[in-house]
Amino acid sequence: MSLIDSLNWRYATTKFDTSKTISDNEIDKLKEITKLSPSSWGFQFYKVLVITDKKLKQRLLPTAYNQSQIVDCSHLFIFCSYRSVFEHDIDQMIVEFHRIRANDQNYSKESTDSYASGAKKSILNMNEAKQLEWLKKQCYIALGQLMVGCADMRIDSCPMEGFKSDEVDEVLDLNSQNLTSVVLLPTGYRSSEDKYQHKTKVRKPKNLLFEDK
Ligand SMILES: Cc1cc2nc3c(=O)[nH]c(=O)nc-3n(C[C@H](O)[C@H](O)[C@H](O)COP(=O)(O)O)c2cc1C
């Protein structure tokens, strides 16, 4: 199956089969796919919660306007961005850069340190609103990558913005961890009763979506 076939197979699943669970092995692959997402400066200033606890899903249901995917899915991914970036967050990632690249050919500690100062200048000088907007965008890149990965593995998913972020943050106590919920991805297996799987995809024609210059 080609990637295009997988993308045509994928649809925003509204009804999951509650009897089916994604295996630990596959969840581990989905985590790896998400982990490999690119991000601005390579800092990945977000955390992804993977929720299977039935009681917790039930508590989250009203925060998502009772959309049943929250409770019926196998694994609920919640992309949470940092609320704010502190100097120590950048330092922590730079330690990783040094550690992981130390044995690379042509590795230079100095150039990594100067990368860090450039990053600090750019990120720490953003005003609060701009920084948060920037942080949230990174979650969407990881979301997209995970969705495509799911489709490639014939795992269903539904991207969701229809939820009250402040209420999710409260249920999961995210504020105290400098985190805020950005976007959700329930994953699992489609129910044969989900009528949306039979709908033909509606997409802009290429001549409206693209302009070749
Ligand atoms: C960022 C984002 C947020 C969405 N939020 C919801 C949602 O809260 N509930 C829902 O049922 N579908 C949601 N959708 C699904 C879209 O309605 C769906 O992707 C779109 O109609 C295209 O259909 P397809 O994904 O089945 O091809 C969301 C999609 C995206 C990308």
Explained architecture:
This protein has helices at 3-9, 24-35, 54-60, 69-72, 87-101, 109-124, 128-152, 165-171, 206-209, and strands spanning 46-51, 75-82, 156-157, 179-188. By secondary structure, the protein is an alpha+beta fold. It has a single domain, classed as NADH Oxidase (3-Layer(aba) Sandwich), CATH 3.40.109.10. It has a 4-stranded antiparallel β-sheet with strand order 1-2-4-3, with helices on both faces. The longest helix has 25 residues, at 128-152. The chain starts with a helix and ends with a helix. Residues 11-12, 14, 67, 158-162, 183, 201 line the site of flavin mononucleotide.
Q: What topology emerges from the helices and strands here?
A:
Layout: H1 3-9, H2 24-35, E1 46-51, H3 54-60, H4 69-72, E2 75-82, H5 87-101, H6 109-124, H7 128-152, E3 156-157, H8 165-171, E4 179-188, H9 206-209
Antiparallel strand pairs: 1-2, 2-4, 3-4
Bound molecules: flavin mononucleotide.
Flavin mononucleotide binds next to loops.
